[in-house]
């Protein structure tokens, strides 16, 4: 009985260490993809729940009083000509088109990210989630800005996938506020 308990404890410890390394490796890969502006791969590594949430937040923009202005501003970003077309985009394509537009129209942001340094500090596991703490160092106007940030991950099958960062959620919700 004592041996069985020892074996169970050893397997539990090893599984937790493996999950932690796995999430850390995923986060390092994901941060590298963001740094190199690979929108296709970035989208592929997003959790479906995050993609759907992003689409939901943005579509809320079209329920408010300034929806005519929202259509004028946002349809070109998503390369659509009607709300029906926009709603018909799958969440992955929706997210991809938005980020492709960001990278295309914000060259200073792209340049800043390419010069950024990231270092994963640690991982906190929570059931089917992993929260990865990392340090982001950016050079802005010849000044180095250090920021601690978190990427939350969620399992999708056997693989980790990224959830929306708090900044991304806030930006998506900010669109709704802009068109109220």
Explain this structure.
There is one protein chain. The chain is of the alpha+beta class. The protein has one domain: Nuclear Transport Factor 2, Chain: A (Roll). The chain contains eight helices and four strands. A four-stranded antiparallel sheet has the order 1-2-3-4, with helices on one face. The longest helix has 34 residues, at 2-35.
Regions with little confidence, pLDDT below 50 for 5+ residues: 1-21
Strand order of the biggest β-sheet: 1-2-3-4
**Helix/strand class:** alpha+beta
Shape: globular
Counted by DSSP, the helix tally is 8
CATH topology: Nuclear Transport Factor 2, Chain: A
What is the terminal separation in angstroms?
A: 65 Å
In short:
With 180 residues, the chain is of the alpha+beta class. It has helices spanning 2-35, 39-44, 48-59, 67-78, 83-88, 91-105, 107-114, 166-178, and strands at residues 117-126, 129-140, 143-156, 159-162. It has one domain (2-178): Nuclear Transport Factor 2, Chain: A, CATH 3.10.450.
